[in-house]
Amino acid sequence: MSNRTVAVIGAGTMGAGIAQICAQAGWETRLFDVFPEGLEAGMGRIDAFWDKGIARGKTTSEQKAEWEKNLSACSDLAGAVADVDLVIEAVPEILDLKQQIFAQLDQLAPPNAILGTNTSGLKISDIAGVTSRPEMVIGMHFFNPVPIMKLLELVRHDQISDSTIEIAQEVGAEMGKSCILVNDVPGFATSRLGVVLGNEAIRMLADGVASATDIDTAMRLGYKHPMGPLELSDLVGLDVRRDILNNLAEAFDDDSYRPHPLLNQLVEAGSLGKKTNMGIYDWSSGEKVEREL
Strands, DSSP E only, in 49-187? Predict the structure, then answer.
């Protein structure tokens, strides 16, 4: 698989980022989304990222031209996965949706294609179980922003083959990622720790312990986190954080994982974080600004 052909399913923030790094790795990359406007937005997001890199002197126009040759937009799922070596699904964290897509991928993708799911907390066995090739299904949890974040969390389940794990590790290395391998437990390693920290930070904010900025500064300077838990929650998406917490609460039968009421309130109001320009912080100016909650 040195010359890979990859299909990325879902052109949102994560899917676009994954497609971008696949194209930059030199692979033929097809980005699919069922919604034309979503596909257009995803391709535009990649183009803007590359242009920003050129403007900052980190990449060149020649590099962008080469990467663009590797990337194509697809509105037909069958065409997107035809003759691919690897499929990476990056749709919202809804188990039924992912299972529906994997049932389709199982029918449409070549029998030798590895199927990866970019989930931050759903059980991989529940997704692999709808296919006839569970041994070739693996969790591939990327981090936002995908082109910058170095970690790739690979998740193995009971039926996965050693060769699938090995190929996924090779793929991660070729993408420039550092891979960790974790077992198929709710929340894996990263999401379980990250969302609990973020939820507690929201509780502290609601209780008036300190301002959002000061809570974030405490973790950045006191614990050397590159970003505070509240800012990170806005970056990941408050709806994503809420869904992971609810999934953990149900999986462990433990309501201590339930999202804090303030988190639910923000999501219900459509304040989902940076992607909607409003979350724990106000991002409408392009910079984070404290807001009254």
Answer: 71-74, 86-89, 114-117, 137-141, 151-156, 178-183
CATH architecture of 191-284: Orthogonal Bundle (1.10)
Query: Does domain 5-183 match CATH 3.90.1170.50?
Result: no
Q: Over the range 146-172, which residues count as b (16 or more CB within 10 Å of their CB) and which as e?
A: bbeeeebbbbbbebbbeebbebbbebb
Residue given tokens 């040195």 in the structure block: 2
Domain 5-183 matches domain 191-284 at the CATH topology level = no
Contact 140, 88 (CB under 8 A): yes
Query: What tokens appear for 119 in the block?
Result: 């989930």
pLDDT per residue as tens digits for the range 126-142: 999 999 999 999 999 99
Classified as helix, coil or strand, 89 is: strand
Find the mean pLDDT for residues 90-119.
Answer: 96
The pLDDT value given to residue 186: 87
Q: Looking at residues 232-243, what average pLDDT do you find?
A: 93
Domain ranges of the chain: 5-183, 191-284
Largest CA distance in the chain: 56
Both tokens assigned to 147: 């082109």
- What is the predicted pLDDT for the residue at 71? 98
